[in-house]
Specification:
The protein has 10 helices and 7 strands. With 352 residues, it is α+β, with helices and mostly antiparallel strands.
Length: 352
C-alpha cells in the first residue's frame, strides 16, 4: 500500500481528510492535491518523519513556505516508494519460498521413484517389466526436467523483479540526497561528503578543501519579486556551482541561500581559483523574470574557503570556511576570502 492507501473505515477517512483540510487552512497552505497528500499523511500518522516535521513547525508556529512544502513532498514520495519496495520485496520472497518448497517436494517424489525403481531391479525381471520400468523412469525424469525448467523461469522472473525494486531503492536514495528545488546535492549529501573526506585524510595525504557560499541580499529578491523569483535565483547559483565542480567533488545546497562545496584532492590555492570561477560565473549571469522578460539585475555571492589540516575534523574546517564567508560579507560582499586572508572573521563569529 502506498501513501493514502491505508485501509480505513469511510467515516475515519472523512475525518482525517477534514482534519487535513482544516489544518491546511489554519496554516495558510493552498489546498492543492500535493499539499493535501502531505497533511493527510500527517493526520493519519502514516509517515512518522513528515508528522514529526509538521508537528515541530506547528509547535514553533513556523510558516509553511514553498521550500518546506517541497521538502515535505519529497519525504512523502520517498516514504511511499519505500513502502512499495518493502511490500514488493515481501511478495517476491514469499513467491520464491513457495516455489522452492514446491521444488523440494518434487525432488522428494522423484527421489522416491528412483528408490522404488532400484528396489524393483532384480535378476527375475522380464524384458517387458524392464521396458515398463525404464519408461516410467523416463517419464518421471522428463516431468522433473519440465518442473526444473519452470522453476528456473520463475526464479529469473523473481530476479528481474528484485532488480526493479533495487532500481527503485537507488532512485529513492538519490532523491534523499538531492535538493528538490535546485537539483544539486542537499545538506545530507554535503555532510556525507565531508565525513568521507575526513576519513580519507587518515589514509592519504591528498588535500581537501571546503567552500561555503552565500547569496548577497537574497532577502531583497524575495521581498521585491516574490518567492518564485527567489527560487530562480537559487537555481541560477546552483547551476553555476555544478558547471564548475566535477568528478569526486560535491556541490550542495547547504541551507536556505547558502551553498557548500567539498573539493577532494584540492589544496587551498586551487580551491580559491575554483571559488573565483564560481563567483565570476554567478556575477556574469543576468536574472530575467520569465513572465515578462524583464531583467531584474545581477546576482552576487560571498565565498569563504578553507583547507582541511592533517587529521582535522570536518567541523573545524567548516567553521573556518564559515568565518571566511562572514569576513567576505563584512568587507563588501561579492568576495572570495580564504583562511589565509587577514579579513577572515574571528572563529567565534557565526556567519549570517
Amino acid at each position: 500500500m502506498g501513501v493514502g492507501e491505508v485501509v480505513l473505515r469511510p467515516d475515519r477517512e472523512q475525518s482525517l481528510a477534514q482534519t487535513a483540510l482544516d489544518l491546511m487552512s489554519e496554516c495558510g497552505v493552498a489546498p492543492t492535491p500535493d499539499n493535501f497528500e502531505i497533511f493527510y499523511a500527517h493526520a493519519s500518522g502514516e509517515i512518522s518523519a513528515v508528522s514529526h516535521t509538521i508537528g515541530e513547525m506547528l509547535a514553533r508556529k513556523k510558516a509553511f513556505t514553498p521550500e518546506i512544502l517541497r521538502e515535505l513532498r519529497a519525504q512523502t514520495k520517498a516514504a511511499a516508494t519505500m513502502e512499495q519496495v518493502g511490500e514488493g520485496m515481501n511478495s517476491v520472497i514469499a513467491g520464491v519460498m513457495g516455489r522452492l518448497n514446491d521444488a523440494g517436494r518434487d525432488a522428494g517424489r522423484y527421489s522416491s521413484k528412483l528408490s522404488a525403481a532400484t528396489g524393483e531391479l532384480d535378476a527375475d525381471q522380464s524384458p517387458d517389466d524392464l521396458r515398463k520400468l525404464v519408461n516410467n523412469l523416463l517419464a518421471a525424469t522428463r516431468e522433473m526436467e519440465h518442473r526444473t525448467a519452470s522453476l528456473e523461469k520463475e526464479l529469473q522472473k523473481s530476479s528481474d523483479q528484485v532488480s526493479d525494486l533495487r532500481s527503485k531503492l537507488e532512485d529513492v536514495h538519490r532523491e534523499t540526497l538531492t535538493d528538490p528545488l535546485t537539483g544539486i546535492s542537499n545538506r545530507k549529501a554535503f555532510d556525507n561528503a565531508l565525513a568521507a573526506a575526513e576519513a580519507a585524510l587518515t589514509e592519504s595525504d591528498d588535500p581537501v578543501s571546503v567552500i561555503l557560499c552565500d547569496i548577497d541580499h537574497f532577502k531583497k529578491f524575495n521581498d521585491n519579486w516574490g518567492h518564485q523569483t527567489g527560487d530562480q535565483v537559487l537555481r541560477l547559483v546552483a547551476s553555476c556551482l555544478s558547471e564548475n565542480v566535477k568528478g569526486r567533488d560535491t556541490a550542495a545546497r547547504y541551507g536556505g541561500e547558502e551553498f557548500g562545496v567539498v573539493l577532494r584532492g584540492t589544496a587551498l590555492r586551487d580551491a580559491m581559483r575554483i571559488a573565483e570561477q564560481i563567483r565570476h560565473a554567478v556575477e556574469s549571469r543576468r536574472l530575467v523574470k520569465k513572465s515578462t522578460g524583464d531583467v531584474l539585475g545581477t546576482i552576487t555571492i560571498s565565498i569563504g574557503v578553507a583547507q582541511f589540516a592533517p587529521q582535522e575534523k570536518a567541523e573545524a574546517a567548516v567553521r573556518r570556511a564559515d568565518a571566511c564567508l562572514y569576513g567576505a560579507k563584512q568587507n563588501g560582499r561579492n568576495l572570495v576570502i580564504s583562511e589565509k586572508d587577514p579579513r577572515m572573521a574571528p572563529l567565534s563569529t557565526n556567519a549570517a
